[in-house]
């Protein structure tokens, strides 16, 4: 058949409504003559007629679109569902139905309708992107990525697909790929604040804090009322040490929404870091509702603001409800007896030269390999320092999980078939404690990193002791308490103290004066302690207060506060940070460590005691304010525990004026560090293993978790045999 005859035949078929047959002839012509303009125009015209025939009238479509735009999703969906019975090939109706169901949260229906829309018009980038969105909300991330990728392949400049693909890749932990797509989107739409914000979040995950900060800054310039961007910019500036900038960022967020408790808490925390003591007054103005009226706030930031364990638990539970959604129920017993080796997983971002490893290094070394298999899950910096190398030589397995998505992280931990999972981070920085919302092991425990309740049933036990968690304090915890026989805090009795001989002159200290010392972080210091410390300096001639240099603003503010109390600012001496072994060695030149009240020294206190420096503490109410007491009891110096601010001040003054008494304390401390329970790493490890056995034994016997008191036992002994049978 000639070309002209073929075209005429196709037109006759169109006139008799045989559209499919006509379309086939036009397609055959174009297959033979790809540049034939008449056939191409005829096919396009036919396709347009077919689309119009498959859709309801324009006025009906306009009414449906108006209903959707007005948020009438359920009514619009009902009308569209009725019409689609008549117009079964209407891309408009199927796509609209899918969008309505997506807004209503009916994800299965949405995905089904949008799939049909894509079948009708495979080249519709909008419908395919919406299908990707439905699949993403169903947590079918890989299927969503496929849909977004198809859109971008056909439409490289499709902003919605680029952004959503980037966000989905970020959800899976594929941050490098995510950043590439988000960067492309930002170039295409440089005035889109949301795109800048999303890209910033990915750069933050990649560790590019400066790049993230710049993007957040760009977002707030584009959209000054973008409160979340102000907040995240503040967080980044805080991490970078730009604390005054961070305060301004949080203030900007509060200008947008004065009820943004999250921004206010972070602002107050940054103010505490720079010793701007206007924060307690602002805190008191807002304390009754902070973290309790819808905007959950970081429990760690609030920990140092008030010693009130009841209030802290309420705030923490509010925060946990957002962080731990859909907590998995306990697992049924999968064995009738204790395995030969319990498999214990420790989860942390701090498996390197960090306070956690300064304390725990010896624990991993002392775990009984005949009874315990230890798996370390690291999701922090991959630093190959001495602490990491030591850990690697003593754990059974080391899992590098820093660039692994939460979904894959959980799958990997579950594949390891852990018996006990221990979170070492809690609500401290860079934590991934939300992993524990899913059951990683039959028994979940919280330990060491965060001194307080996690506020969620995701954790079965919190490891404490009888001092930090005294009888009657159970109501402050969502977890059941596993109380160690002495202090809850593990210490490494192999920690090295530098041989470097420090002199007072080398440390900037007067040679013959009394040296009070407090190496706590600046945010822990409040006017309550400082008033006492300044009165001590006033009463002890020539004495000085040796502090850790935190930041320039804190130093200037503390000097100003000293002068306001009649003390020469030069009597505050600030110590630079230095390697841990040297830091321990230099503490020998101080006379007395003065603890902070609301949030005691923790690792810092055991550092001082290990170095032979006595610590004076005030026993508070919450876990964080009782750690000093726990450490002093375990090192055999309970007389350095005071119960009131008056007693604290009087005891400090007494010791400063009684060199013989202080010398006696130092002598006892030197002796006790060799024998006291605080520095007996092997004995602590055996007791911890006993606690693990007790908790796991309850699980094997079908018993719910309960408060446990771990008894003291002889080194190397255990009362639970591997063959313990469940009831």
TrEMBL record:
TPR repeats lie at residues 91-124, 125-158, 193-226, 227-260. Belongs to the glycosyltransferase 41 family. O-GlcNAc transferase subfamily. Its EC number is 2.4.1.255. Keywords: Glycosyltransferase, Repeat, TPR repeat, Transferase. Transmembrane segments: none annotated. InterPro entries: OGT/SEC/SPY_C (IPR029489), TPR-like_helical_dom_sf (IPR011990), TPR_rpt (IPR019734). PANTHER family: PTHR44998, UDP-N-ACETYLGLUCOSAMINE--PEPTIDE N-ACETYLGLUCOSAMINYLTRANSFERASE 110 KDA SUBUNIT. Pathway: Protein modification; protein glycosylation. This is protein O-GlcNAc transferase.
